[in-house]
From TrEMBL:
Keywords assigned: Cell membrane, Membrane, Transmembrane, Transmembrane helix, Transport
Membrane topology: Multi-pass membrane protein
InterPro entries per UniProt: MetI-like (IPR000515), MetI-like_sf (IPR035906)
Species for this entry: Microbacterium tenebrionis
Record carries keyword Signal: no
Entry protein name: Carbohydrate ABC transporter permease
Gene Ontology biological process: transmembrane transport
Amino acid sequence: MSRSNAQSARIVRRAPMYALLTVIALLFIGPVLWMVSGSFKSIGEILQYPPKLFPEVFRWENYAQVFTLQPFAQQFLNSVLLMVLICTLTLVLAIPSGYALARVRPAGAEIFFLILLAGVFIPPEAVIIPLFQAAAQIGWVDTFYPLVIFTSVLSTGPVAMFIMRQAFLTLPNEFEEAATLDGASRARTMVQIFLPLVRPSIASAVVFTAWFSWNQFLEPLVYLRSQTMLTVPVALTLFEDALAGPRWNVQMAATTLSVLPVLIVFLIAQKHVVSGLTAGGLKS
């Protein structure tokens, strides 16, 4: 059989798989394309049947209305600030605790680790009322303090700690022994020896934390009151006309803009994400 015939036969054998992957890709890409397309349409074009993917006229004014109907620029900055603060506090908590659980292993470390992981499976709705009552008593309502602290400690911190613990477990003991012989302290060993080796896992923790904090809806809805303090997920629900109802085209424009920060974070860290998430598969 010639090379061209063999290549043709291989393509024919793989055609069903390619067709299936194309259908699956369209299921994920289709809503995003419809969102971007709808951000340039009028409300009538969005609701017309049969639907059209491309607008008759690209209405760039939809994006201008995003910033005129409400203080979306401030709300966007609020979400960016919260994402940065939550990522920072999460790493500050997760890296030392993950190192301690993996390398120091104090008494009761495994039990402590299991308790922290168990907390991840508690839905936020189950604890939002007592947390709100505590925040109200200390004057944290309509501030970012409960969003940053409660999220980092109860939600993103345990997951990031698990990622970091598994990453530290994969590193050989010889690195630590050599650092100890050179007189390095635990803190110096962690910072100068181990952290450069677990950068993929740090990137994975950052991407997860950024995604989680950016998409939070219930917590900002409960803790925040002022319109200028709101975050993007809550702000997206407020693009409505008192008489005509939701402004779907403006809402889709705002949603398109809201995707960009997490997408940028992922594109920057994507080469580290897969290797970071699989860290720990070699040694437990």
